[in-house]
Specification:
In the N-terminal section; belongs to the cytochrome b5 family. In the C-terminal section; belongs to the FMN-dependent alpha-hydroxy acid dehydrogenase family. The chain is of the alpha/beta class. It is built from 20 helices and 16 strands.
């Protein structure tokens, strides 16, 4: 193949409008995107803003690296940019329009105007998962923070997910040999260092330039399972390629109205060795996340939408921008088709919120459920997963499930910030617990080292607390080790979680640091 001739930057700069044609530079290569303007899922405006210029800085955080190559005809790939030939952009072009918020790069923008300068603490001073959240709140860009931290409506359910753990008390046992403590576990037949997995959270590059592969690498080092999100900033293959040999990964799936695309995703996941398919079933429509909706979303959102060419609303926040393709007609009758497509992969329903649906999932041949309300981001006043866990486990066992002959696993997610939270869920019958936001905050604030630090904190907490409750192994963490008599009582007072929760303030009032 003949090497492409270099393109002079001065020529690129001339192609800066619809009339003159639109060329952009991404990763040192020049592309003619004139004919793609009106097909771009994020709209033509964002491309035109970078017409005749280098668009890499805007492109990189919210697109998989091959998105532009996959979506443009090869004839529109004009060749490499000749170094140092591109004129500097006009001053006005480098600033985003007043209605948008630019994605944080190496130096993150402040959350809101006027806060005092914040000095990020060194990683060794981070002592809990709460600390990552506190630092993220002060250092992340507004668009990423609003997307990650927002909940539905009044965010009651989001806070209750965590507060429910405060109403379960331990009943420690004494004089047990806890000289050696083993908190390793098995999830869907796969060994893992602890009963925790990284649950799927979209748009990783809103928090860190490398995105979700940062989570992949840290998970591999600590033998923790990562659930790959459908709506990741990185491509699926990037995350699989970043895994170490024999690293276990699951896939979270939003079912597309175009079922052929869904089947293609499932088939590819199976071919790449993904072990389980977690089908999200609590999102026929994305919830109203008002904090997120206050931030206009600019540009493409996710790998899947980039590849699929979906259109979406950019003026209602990131969540609604990335959800246009989700099929609201998904129902129980569709499970057989999805299970057939999954082949040898285990199939789990993610987003079950009552015991009746957990039983139906078992009856329809699923391998388990995740009790989840989408991190409090869908239906406000949906129950905390922990509050329904005892009833779900009890009724499943009454129906003959969760036994060696009829295996069925129950997971929960939402609100987990301590190993003690995980141990309470294990005692009440959960196989493992998904952790989402804390891992994203660890990644956003300290990168891969931050995620590793989060795992180390959890391991230290597991060892200490299993000794203190008298449980040398997870098999010893049983229902009579916890008191749930107050589980459905009213919530208590302020916690560090409450301190991290950001409330709406009157105009002119600064957030308290």
């Amino acid at each position: 193949m003949t090497a492409q001739k270099g393109v002079d930057g001065k020529e690129v700069a001339k192609h800066n409008s619809r009339e003159n044609g639109v060329w952009i530079v991404v990763h040192g290569k020049v592309y003619d995107v004139t004919d793609f303007l009106d097909e771009h899922p994020g709209g033509a405006e964002i491309i035109l803003r970078y017409a005749g210029m280098d668009a890499t800085e805007e492109y990189e955080p919210i697109h998989p690296p091959d998105a532009i190559i996959d979506n443009l005809d090869p004839s529109k790939h004009l060749g490499p940019l000749i170094p140092s030939t591109l004129p500097p952009p006009p001053v006005s072009a480098s600033a985003p329009p007043p209605t948008s918020v630019s994605i944080p790069q190496k130096t993150n923008e402040p959350l809101a105007g006027g806060e005092e300068e914040y000095a990020k603490p060194p990683l060794e001073e981070i002592l809990s998962l709460h600390d990552f959240e506190a630092v993220a709140r002060r250092t992340m860009g507004k668009r990423g923070w609003n997307y990650y931290s927002s909940g539905a409506d009044d965010e009651i359910t989001m806070r209750e997910n965590h507060n429910a753990y405060h109403r379960v008390w331990f009943r420690p046992r004494i004089l047990r040999n806890v000289g050696t403590v083993d908190y390793s576990s098995t999830i869907l037949g796969h060994k893992t260092s602890m009963p925790v997995y990284i649950t799927a959270t979209a748009l990783g590059k809103l928090g860190h330039p490398e995105g979700e592969v940062t989570l992949t690498r840290a998970a591999g080092k600590h033998n923790v399972i990562q659930m790959i999100p459908t709506l990741a900033s990185c491509s699926f293959d990037e995350m699989v390629d970043a895994a170490i040999p024999n690293q276990v990964q699951f896939l979270q799936l939003y079912v597309n109205a175009d079922r052929s695309r869904t089947k293609k995703i499932i088939k590819h996941a199976a071919e790449r060795g993904v072990k389980a398919l977690f089908i999200t079933v609590d999102a026929p429509q994305l919830g109203r996340r008002e904090k997120d909706m206050r931030t206009k979303f600019v540009g493409n959102a996710s790998s899947q939408q980039t590849q699929g060419g979906d259109n979406f609303k950019r003026d209602q926040g990131a969540a609604r921008a990335i959800s246009s393709f989700i099929d609201p007609s998904l129902n129980w009758n569709d499970l057989a088709e999805l299970k057939e497509a999954a082949g040898e992969m285990k199939v789990i329903l993610k987003g079950v919120q009552c015991w009746e649906d957990a039983v139906m999932a078992a009856e329809y041949g699923c391998d388990g459920v995740v009790l989840s309300n989408h991190g409090g981001r869908q239906l406000d006043f949906a129950p905390s997963p922990l509050t329904i866990l005892p009833q779900v486990v009890s009724i499943l066992k009454q129906r003959g499930y969760m036994t060696p002959s009829r295996p069925f696993e129950v997971f929960i997610d939402g609100g987990v910030r301590r190993a003690t939270d995980v141990l309470k869920a294990i005692a009440l019958g959960a196989t493992a617990v998904g952790i989402g936001r804390p891992m994203i905050y660890a990644m956003s604030t300290f990168g891969e080292e931050g995620v590793s630090r989060a795992f180390e904190i959890l391991k230290d907490e597991f060892e200490m607390n299993m000794r203190l409750i008298g449980a040398p192994t997870l098999a010893d963490v049983v229902p009579n080790m916890v008191d749930i008599s107050s589980l459905n009582a009213a919530s208590g007072g302020i916690t560090m979680y409450e301190e991290n929760y950001e409330r709406m303030l009157p105009v002119g009032v600064k957030a308290r640091l």
